[in-house]
Amino acid sequence: MTGTRSRRRVLRLASTGASSGSTDRPAWPAHVDLVHDAAGRWTVGLGEGVGHGSAGGEFSVDEALQVRRLAHISRADGAWLVPFLRRLQAGGTVTESELVTAYRARHGRDPQILA
């Protein structure tokens, strides 16, 4: 059944480590992944925590732009992703190459590709 599952690309584009007593970092590590499927659709993966104490989910772009999830994106140092998400919400296109280039400009390295 190899050909029946769509291939997805998962880009880890924002993440923070857990705080070590500092108030400017979240208590739990947080991350934001953008997921691109074979049909060209983007979804947003949000997660936090470590190991069995972690939680997360995959959301549509519309759901990711809701206030509560935007707060998570900001906590994960992903506020720079919001203009890309808004463009997708408005019916525009965003390419993996464009996201990787923006990430590289911010961080000086390529993002982690999980799948």
Mind sketching the topology for me?
Layout lengths: L7 E9 L13 E8 L4 E7 L6 E5 L1 H4 L2 H9 L6 H8 L6 H12 L4 E2 L2
Antiparallel strand pairs: 1-2, 1-5, 2-3, 3-4
Task: Please explain how this structure is put together.
- The chain has 115 residues and is α+β, with helices and mostly antiparallel strands.
- It has one domain.
- It is 29% helix and 27% strand.
- The chain has helices spanning 61-64, 67-75, 82-89, 96-107, and strands at 8-16, 30-37, 42-48, 55-59, 112-113.
- It has a five-stranded antiparallel beta sheet with strand order 4-3-2-1-5.
- The longest helix is centred in the last third of the chain and has 12 residues, at 96-107.
- The chain is globular, with a radius of gyration of 14 Å.
- The mean pLDDT is 89.
Number of domains: 1
Helix content: 25-40%
Strand order of the largest sheet: 4-3-2-1-5
Q: Secondary-structure element order, as H and E?
A: EEEEHHHHE
- Counted beta strands: 5
Q: Main sheet, how many strands, which sense, barrel?
A: 5 strands, antiparallel
* Apparent shape: globular
Strand content: 25-35%
Q: How many H/I helices?
A: 4
Radius of gyration from the CA trace?
14 Å
Mean pLDDT: 89
Which structural class fits the helix and strand makeup?
alpha+beta
The parts where pLDDT drops under 50 for at least 5 residues are none
- The separation of the N and C termini measures 18 Å
